[in-house]
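User: Sorry, folds how?
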Amino acid sequence: MPQSSRYSDERVEKILAELVQILEQNQTPTDLSLMVLGNMVTNLINTDIPPAQRRALARSFAEALQSSVREDKAH
């Protein structure tokens, strides 16, 4: 999700690496990883965002996710 952030790249990369490590340690398949991460996003939105802003934030998140997905043939 290329966007300016108040968080340093180093902090983001550190947390991402920790999350990847947990998924790898649990030998989590891709579909389960996506389910877990999706549930985490839903939980964060439902618990940390005021109700009036939740749908707009979810829409913005989904759009940012779609724009960051590559369409190359690599698998």
